[in-house]
Predict the structure of Pisatin demethylase.
Amino acid sequence: MAGFTNLYRLQRVLTGKAHLLDISLHRKYGSVVRLGPNLVSIGDPLAIPTIYGITASLPKSSFYPVNFTYSNGKLIPGIFATTSDVLHRQMKRPIASFYSMTNILAYEPLVDDTIRVFVDQLQERYALTGTPCDLSDWLQYYAFDVIGAVTFSTRIGFLERGRDIDNAMEGIWRRFRYFALIGQIPWLDWFWDKNPILNKIFPAKSSPIAKFAMQLTGKRLEQLRHNSFPINSNSDPVTPKRDLLSSFLDAKAKAGEKVPDWYLTSWTISNLLAGSDTTAIYLRSVFYYLLRNPTSLCRVLDELKLAEDEKRLSAIISYKESKSLTYLDACIKEAGRLHPSIGLPLERVVPRGGLQINGYYLPEGTIVGVNAWASQHDMTLFGRDADEWRPERWLVNAARSSELDRAMMLFGTGHRSCLGKHIALVEIYKVVPQILRNFEIKWADPSRDWKTENFWAVRQTNMEVVFCQKPAALEQETQAARKAKECVS
């Protein structure tokens, strides 16, 4: 069926289990599998550089523009979704350096502030009351508020309110469902979401996230225009904090007319849309696998205690401190390997001259892609236990760890890899040990497993846990939070 119609592609994604189907297909039929008349899935991690490498010249397929979003009724291309490598370079060049790890770590205090709020909310709402907590929701509240803080110096407010705001989270998930399904037959998008006639009759509305991004960007521009920043207690103007928005504005001012206004819109919206769901999925995986594997959890806790006893940890654990925790690092990598955020092939188009992969010739125009789930569960590379939790596989030696790393597609790879990778890593490496340090966590009902469904992102739900406070660590953090609040006020 796959050789004759794209309906198989659609049917496969409709199951919500395409990631598992792809693993099964590659184990049954080999490294090259046809998923549609013109779509071929590659399951061999060694083929990744050929398709996505820095020197590879395979453009993105027509699957991606389905993900273009609207702002004020206008269709806004994004760095992620554009199929044009020229436009991608033009949009990326002015801002790429802002996303280096060195520059992202300059915003670490903004992440610290968000973690303090997160810990306080978990303590007050759950640890002190014994009420079960749906951790799957709260990890996304955290991810949303961090990206808001790093981009705008302002949290969106998910953590303080303890709920989805304006259905933003659900709206993104609906968007992912549309993208995943309609992207299998992309021309359908021009009859529905991108239909110019329908959009004249029923103008496309901005998403809540786009509205939030535009509101805060407009507010900052107004403040800069009139030099009307808030006044502190000494009646002095408050200097605007350095954040990604301020860097974007600097880049736009420096480039002048070379950077149109809609680039700024696209940069800020892309940060919010791409920076919450995928990071939350990674975080859920880390906590899930640790809680399901008590031996690993105990070893992480022992590692944390030793670092604490040796006074190697700050009140809010820094990224650098967390990365020094070798076993925790292995657990975070293993969780990302077992459950990568994206569950469909990252589609590319074979250029002129065709492509030779694993003994198969793919002619020009063929759509080809690797699904991270197939690559990261490859038994040839990861062993017969590729489907099992074993963080120790990352601790053999540096050469073996590097070999495994090359098969990882958590953030894409090559010149079209995720710009926000370092933001996500800082969020994850800081909050995981902080939560484990402050709380004992148990499943509310160990017999209930999480639920997952794949519509582009492989989202997890049903992660009810019970938090118990650790008095010594909690008191230390509470005092640090009070001091921080006093400094701010």
